[in-house]
Write a structure and sequence with these properties.
By secondary structure, this protein is of the alpha/beta class. It contains 16 helices and eight strands. Helix 10 packs antiparallel against helix 11 and helix 11 packs antiparallel against helix 16. The two termini are 49 Å apart.
Length: 340
């Protein structure tokens, strides 16, 4: 079947009939992911009737078995093959029969994250096979032009209950480019920063947010952890990593923050220090509302949780230094534990 656009695919989904095979290709990964989500939602699949494989670390016979397995208490199974452009020759030959002889009780979704026009990869034979099949719906997820990207930003804000001016939309696209995943992340951050109450996003708001992200530092990360605000903590962590901050330096900042909280909590609960004595000991400034705010934040943590948080800091330190875990993932999991 001749490739259809993402917009045509949305109409195809709304019409209700699900094809046995989908070949979803292109360079816009966000649209590929959204296409899969829409298919799974339409089929209403569950974990018992869903399997995911990824080339080249896949055996063709395993994919065939998954597709040919009968669904459990439902009409269709969903089988997803990621990175099909990396399929080995032997596995491609095995999977060919699924495309030539589709299985009605399954929805076989093939993801090919490359453009198909002028494709020179060794798996261009898969493009031809799927395009020639009358049972296969080919969806091409092309990169957006600027105008399309601006329309996307407006729709995404509207879906979140926000109104935004054309000038602000243009600034967002100028700063983030036309990659939809990047734009989606920026939109999410802006909405998170402004909160649910504010409905209209102005140029002043965007200027403040841009300034905020450029001024993010370790001090701000510590304050947000102390406030036990997980969403902001993850947001600031991501921005600092984007700005080139090393994982080991971020871990050190998190460790110092938790250690200070633990010291304060221990002094008050185990050694019976007064609030003033505790604030003096950990050197929290006495002016403005620093001490009041710190004590308020401290009340959000239990002594046992802070002790366990320090153990988690040690685990993250070992994982990062030995390379057992991805650095960013280790830091994110640590923040989730501390701020939960």
């Amino acid at each position: 079947m001749k490739p259809i656009t993402y917009l045509q695919f949305q109409k195809h989904i709304s019409d209700g009939k699900i094809a046995p095979i989908y070949f979803i290709c292109g360079e816009e990964h966000y649209l590929i992911d959204e296409s899969v989500k829409q298919l799974e939602k339409k089929i209403n699949t569950d974990s018992l009737n869903r399997e995911v494989f990824q080339a080249p670390d896949v055996l063709g016979k395993d994919v065939v078995f998954a597709v040919e397995t009968l669904p459990f208490l439902t009409d269709k199974r969903v089988v997803i093959l990621k990175m099909a452009n990396k399929l080995k020759n032997a596995d491609f030959e095995t999977i060919t029969r699924l495309i030539e002889n589709p299985v009605d009780s399954a929805c076989f979704i093939i993801l090919f994250p490359e453009k198909i026009k002028g494709n020179t990869s060794k798996r261009k034979d898969l493009i031809s096979l799927c395009s020639d099949s009358k049972q296969c719906v080919c969806v091409e997820c092309k990169k957006f032009y600027e105008k399309d990207a601006r329309d996307f930003v407006i729709r995404e804000f509207k879906s979140r209950g926000k109104n935004v001016s054309y000038d602000v939309v243009s600034q967002i696209v100028n700063e983030s480019g036309t990659d939809l995943l990047n734009l989606s992340n920026e939109i999410e951050k802006i909405c998170l920063f402004l909160g649910k109450e504010k409905k209209q996003i102005t140029e002043d708001d965007f200027a403040k947010i841009s300034g905020f992200t450029k001024e993010i530092n370790v001090f701000m990360l510590s304050n947000i952890i102390e406030a036990k605000n997980l969403k902001y903590a993850l947001f600031i962590l991501e921005k600092m990593i984007e700005n080139g901050e090393k994982a080991i330096n971020l871990l050190s900042a998190i460790s110092s923050t938790v250690r200070k909280l633990l010291t304060a909590k221990s002094l008050m609960q185990e050694k019976h220090y007064t609030s003033q004595e505790t604030m003096d000991y950990i050197r929290v400034p006495a002016f403005f509302n620093f001490r009041k705010d710190y004590l308020n934040n401290l009340s959000k943590f239990s002594l046992e949780h802070l002790k366990q948080s320090m153990r988690e800091v040690l685990k993250a330190d070992i994982a990062i230094k030995t390379g057992k875990t991805d650095e960013i993932l280790a830091l994110e999991k640590l923040l989730i534990f501390i701020c939960k």
